[in-house]
Amino acid sequence: MQDVLIVGAGPTGLVLALWLTGQGVKVRIIGRSAGPGETSRAMAVQARTLELYRQLDLAEAVVAAGHPVPAINLWARGRHRARIAFRNAGSDLTAYPFVLTYPQDHHERLLIERLASVGVTVERRTELLSFEDEADHVTARLRMPDGTEQRCEARYLAGCDGARSTVRHQLGTGFDGGTYRQVFYVADAEAAPLGDPGEAHVALDRGDLLLVLPYGEGRQCRLIGTVQDERAEHAETLRFEDVSHESMASLGLGVEAVNWFSTYRVHHRVTDHFRQGRAFLLGDAAHVHSPAGGQGMNTGISDAINLAWKLAAAVKGRAPDSLLDSYEVERQGFARTLVDTTDRFFTFATAGGSVADFVRTRLFPSFASVAYEFGSVREFMFRVVSQTMLHYHDSPLSEGRAGTVKGGDRLPWVRSGGSDNHDPLPAIGWQVHLYGTARAELRRWCEQHRLPLRSIAWTPAHREAGFGQDAAYLLRPDSYVALADPEASPAALAQYCDVRGLVLG
């Protein structure tokens, strides 16, 4: 019997398989397609995703293969109106103060190679037909590549199978929301760089939206835009020559070649339940939203990492089944907030009419240019886009406050000397951080429970980041703060574990 059957081999399913395998959990991962997609839309890898990838020794490989975008330029009616530089905004917040462009198909291939290196192969052209929750395991019926059927038993089932999820349909959970009226196109192109090489560009024109994302070597870029007027009714037959080139012309963008082109519609939906019995929904199977801010793929990856350490604890008998309920509590709330936020921005960016055009192309660029001069605004915008602002304050796993850091916060990043406090453990697991001097009784308790204790010399930078001197911070395997205790008391740590039935070491 497998520990976890993963249905869907996109980034969400692949990362789930990697994190589970890294914790000694036996997985089987299947996908209906013959291989990674060739015309992917997802391009952005956010800072929080790269921080989590560090724990798999994957971040540097992804950064090396991708293209760090140092800034986004905002254009309106052919005029350059603002330049938003990420490094200025995020250099004190994360080791990755940029947005990384890395096409999803390239990203998937890297994840597949890494998974194969630890002995797990994606089973291609294999389809989930149905499954039954047998109370203590799941029995799935699969169609194999040769057309035959096979039964697979697993303790848990993870539906990472996209917006048309078979797992979600069988569970019968709702998928409330809707579909935007706009049709989008994406083109993989070669074009002369605009301004400083490597920077991204957003053009806002009358009802027209264009995003230019550089990647790779030389002149490679992705163009993402809206299909205007009656052409949207025949989107499936359109070619690149058929879509509006008004924004491209206003930028002076000379497209020299188009490698591929496709159109798509954007939906905004969140499922009613992320967990039902022994089945879970992740990524697009659980939530879909507009591409604003490059959040979609990153959110699915965060779903996978949030669930992976909880599944590992349950499989190994180190936590009760109730721990798995926190997956829905934590991730559904964020998904709903994300859909609402991206919906508002998307509606603003694509609204038609003279008033909307005036606000979008005249007032907003001027406001953005002025506002971004303020450090607090730059930092806030970076935190939102990079997902480093995400917290789980309302989770049943979050408790306490020390300094300004609360249970549920992402561990604030602090650089000291040649390293930082996000350095990963040799293996994925719980740990305690203390900034200052650890008392002997805390050290003994951590040793007895085989819980890594990192005692880091106190500096003014730690105070600025919000830490309390000599306070203890219990960190979850995904580097969110579970317990913040200003007294650094072993009794507080013990009580935290006892109440939740957790075995940490």
TrEMBL record:
Residues 3-341 form the FAD-binding domain. SUPFAM superfamilies: FAD/NAD(P)-binding domain. Its cofactor is FAD. One of its GO terms (molecular function) is monooxygenase activity. Keywords: FAD, Flavoprotein, Monooxygenase, Oxidoreductase. Pfam families: FAD_binding_3. It comes from the Bacteria. This is FAD-dependent monooxygenase.
